[in-house]
Amino acid sequence: QVQLLQSGPGLVKPSQTLSLTCAIAGDSVSSNSAAWNWIRQSPSRGLEWLGRTYYRSKWYNDYAVSVKSRITINPDTSVNQVSLQLNSVTAEDTAVYYCARDLERGTYFENWFDPWGQGTLVTVSS
Amino acid sequence: EIVMTQSPATLSVSPGERATLSCRASQSVSSNLAWYQQKPGQAPRLLIYGASTRATGIPARFSGSGSGTEFTLTISSLQSEDFAVYFCQQYNDWPLTFGGGTKVEIK
Predict the structure, then answer these.
(1) CA-CA 20 to 30 A from B86: which of A8, B5, B73, B100?
(2) Hey, are the CB atoms on A116 and B43 less than 8 Å from each other?
(3) A59-63 vs A46-55, strand pairing mode
């Protein structure tokens, strides 16, 4: 059974960098059939997919257009986890952030998510 | 961007009754639709993918139907643990988009 355990600060100052990690148990961040995603949820924006990382002989990243200039998702194979960094945050980035797994079947990703991490509420405020 | 619209926003149902939730896409998503359940303070849980395939461990009282732009999630006989918010998600096109949710509450 795959479990995702998130950690990171719940309060970030405006203009600073939001940093979260997602520890993976029961699967490998380097899996050839999985992608590791970050999704956020806020009352104003609902559920919003932010990006993903995956390994297929080399590492790949895909990012949402809305955050592409500010986001970095990195794997850490030494501790089997994936991280999210979001730069230059504003109050609009206040949300619950989730990591979630997506699986590849055949030659394409399913693009639905299971399982999800427990979520981390991040508030952007001075 | 494909807009997903869920209705109703809130559904009041008595335990043991049937609940029918709707999800409409602004353009066809074929059968590339998933449903999730979210309880307060918890992450979403995958219920259905491919519009009608139950995820592992999901009880048979949950069923999904539809294709194209109109989808339905049916809970045949509501149990106490089913009172939650339900989201649909299309994965036919990028960006992936979610509906705003339907809250199923106790009548």
Answers:
(1) A8
(2) yes
(3) antiparallel
List, for residues B39-65, the tens digit of each pLDDT value.
Answer: 999 999 999 999 999 999 999 999 999
Q: Which has the closest alpha carbon to A66: A82, A46, A43?
A: A46
CA distance B6 to B86: 9
Contact of A92 with chain B, judged by CB distance below 8 Å, is answered with no
The total number of residues shown for chain B amounts to 107
Place of tokens 């993918």: B49
State how far the alpha carbon of B45 is from the alpha carbons of A35, A68, A120, in Å. Answer: 17, 27, 16
Query: Is the CB of B95 less than 8 angstroms away from the CB of A112?
Result: no
- Answer whether residue A107 shows pLDDT above 90: no
Below-50 pLDDT ranges, chain B: none
pLDDT given at position A108: 87
Contact, A95 vs A123, CB < 8 A?
no
Phi-psi region of A8 (alpha: psi -120 to 50; beta: other; left: phi over 0): left
